[in-house]
Amino acid sequence: MEKTLKPMSGYLTLVICLILFVAAVYFFISGVDQSVTFVVLAMLCFLLSCFFLKGLMIIQPNHSRVLNFFGKYVGTVKDNGLFFINPLYSSQKMSLRSENLQGQTLKVNDKMGNPIEIAVVMVWKVGDTYKAAFDVERYSDFVRMQSEAAVRHLAMSFPYDNLEDDHAPITLREGGDKINSILEQELTDRLSKAGIVIQEARISHLAYASEIAGAMLQRQQATAIVAARTKIVEGAVGMVDLALKKLSEENIVELDDERKAAMVSNLMVVLCGEKAATPILNAGTLYN
After folding, report:
1. What is the pTM of this model?
2. Pairing with 20, which of 66, 271, 272, 285 sits 20 to 30 Å away (CA)?
3. Whole-angstrom distance, CA of residue 85 vs CA of residue 8
């Protein structure tokens, strides 16, 4: 469990180190020609100065130091500035800044078995220094590997689109923020054991694999054409029905079943045709 330490300021210790270093130089110069005692004092002052200097540490903004005492976790220093700690402590630098991870493009199968290409970009930072330092071997490598595993699991949990699964509530292509939220939660669950906080995760690349991209594009185009034709036919039938009702209600012309069939046929050709219809004048009747 992470424990935050508040060490003492290091400025006083820095001054003491400078005084000891000056004293060491003075005793050494004085003892060269006079006494061995001065040389011993010079060495003692120099060693003390080095010992205290080892306890000084500078922590930059958004950085921290994880402290250990002969293999035992002591705590984490997250304040910024110059501090003095027990010189026997060993320290490990750890950044608390947000970092970007642009995942590589992965080729996986979606829920329906179609090969797709997917990649994500995520923003993360260290939230628990104890877990990041001691619960995993190298937390940066852990983040990279687990993010790839999370992306693969996400891709296999949902279809790319609803062409094959009309009842799919969520698809990778149209899921939007909901898919991103699921991805963030998946990453949080996997990386929490390393003390990593996920700030944002988004799908940066999503497409069918190259070997089926052309076929799937044709399928999407065919589906769009069928849907458009269905709308056209539904509209044309409504217009024909309205025209027949208006002609009948206003007594513009009396049409028997054969003439109605001919009129419906002509109107459907005009309304559903891809090109403009070419009119042909009939000077006779349907019966001659």
Report:
1. 0.68
2. 66
3. 7
State how far the Cα of 197 lies from the Cα of 3, in Å rounded to an integer: 17
Residues 37 and 128 in one domain: no
Give the span between the Cα atoms of 160 and 25, in whole angstroms: 75
Q: How many domains does the chain have?
A: 3
d(CA 46, CA 17): 9
Same domain for 62 and 127, yes or no, is no
Q: Are strands 81-84 and 56-59 parallel, antiparallel or unpaired?
A: antiparallel
Return all residues near 75 (Cβ < 8 A) that are at least 6 apart.
3, 4, 5, 67
Give the residue from 23, 58, 60 showing the smallest Cα distance to 44.
Answer: 23
Give rounded-to-5 percent helix, strand, coil for the chain: 50, 20, 30
Over the stretch 100-154, which tens digit does the pLDDT of each residue have? 998 888 888 888 888 888 999 999 999 999 999 999 989 999 999 999 999 999 9
CA 288, CA 283: separation in Å to the nearest integer? 10
Quick check: 64 and 96 in contact, CB under 8 A? yes
Please say whether the beta carbons of 236 and 268 come within 8 A.
Answer: yes
Instruction: Tell me the residue range of the domain where 18 lies.
Output: 10-93
Tokens of 273: 């045709």
Tell me the three-class secondary structure of 41-98, residue by residue: HHHHHHHHHHHHHHCEEEECCCEEEEEEECCEEEEEECCCEEEECCCCCEEEEEECCC
Whether 124 and 199 map to the same domain: the answer is yes
**With the CA atoms of 160, 161, 163 and 168 taken in that order, what torsion angle do they form, in degrees rounded to the nearest 10?**
100
Q: Are residues 180 and 246 in the same domain?
A: no
pLDDT of residue 211: 67
* CATH number for 205: 3.30.479.30
Residue closest to 242 by CA, chosen among 262, 264, 273, 270: 264
